[in-house]
Specification:
The chain is globular, with a radius of gyration of 21 Å. The protein has a domain of about 200 residues: Rossmann fold (3-Layer(aba) Sandwich). The protein has about 375 residues and is of the alpha/beta class. It contains 11 helices and 15 strands. The strands form 5 sheets. A 7-stranded parallel sheet has the order 3-2-1-4-5-7-12, with helices on both faces. It comes from Capsaspora owczarzaki (strain ATCC 30864). InterPro entries: 3Beta_OHSteriod_DH/Estase, Lipid_A_modif_metabolic_enz, NAD(P)-bd_dom_sf. One of its GO terms (molecular function) is oxidoreductase activity, acting on the CH-OH group of donors, NAD or NADP as acceptor.
Length: about 375
Amino acid sequence: MGASSSSSSSSSSASGLKALVIGGGGFLGRHLVDELLARGWQASVFDVRKTFDDARIPFFTGDLRKEEDLLPALRGIDVVFHCATPAPLSKNRALFIDVNVNGTKTIVAACKAAGVHRMVVTSSASVIYAGADLELANEDVPYANPPIDAYTETKAEQEQIVLDANNDTGKEATSFLTVAIRPHGIFGPRDPHLVPTLATMARAGKSKYIIGNGKNVVDFTYVKNVVHGHILAAEKLTCGSKVAGKAYHITNDEPIRFWGFMEQILVGLDYPAPYLHIPYWLVYFIALVLALITKLLSPITKLNPTFTPLTVALAGTHHSYDCARAKKDLGYAPVISLKDAIAETIATCEQWRNPKAAPAKPSKKQK
């Protein structure tokens, strides 16, 4: 199914509400800002640096770890959407702790000081993924222990900080209502990670391999559906609502074979489909050895291997998530199907198309 109109995909009760999107200059945040405006909200942005100019959108720059930087942006705000985070594949654990944990504590305190009563935080479905098969897991599955990396470790802690801060007094003026949205495998126009990484690997001749038997099923989620889930949660976040204090998985609700998804993106950009199978155990073993070598040599030199135990697990295991709770409590349903989402994404990625691909032959009608 294609996208429905923005105004019809959400209730009109939120029209005129003021939202601050922390991290609104990034991939997800910018899409969220655009959709909020389309649905009649007033939206402003807080980010570490200014990434765009739009006369409709006040843009505050500052450090989210400093309450004095946040307070001017929070004045008069009805809902805060917090979707700022370091890049998930970063190796900088200290930065994750500083931003996702300490920064979130500061944001919660600043919201309360500024009289903001609602907060939606972007978490991750991967907080429950421990590196082994996980099929249609719901929100009752506990956090992964141990976590698979510093990103998911700090996202779980961030989520708990926000949900623990939820306080429904029965009166909006004295309540602080919170909710966490857990997307998985976000992709779409302006995506800085998935398509650029795939195209770069394909141009280097590294996209022909399939890890394992290629049958592992994963959830990928179009950015506009993630945005839709965030806005629905904000609209439902009222005193007495069952939404307050909970986490919600948001996906396209169309689990797909991981390598089938990769094939559609690659072929859509005129690259060959992956076809060479490598046993999962072998690639995982190589990744473990590389990780050990990287650690041993770290005092001398900095290595950054492409294959890590985590990236191998993500490419070779099942990890899909049940979003039944979001359907029931938020009224969530994807507004754009996976098929249309992939087509829309490819259409916006001409710069990543295979430069060596043969031009398409004209049809008989074109001759």
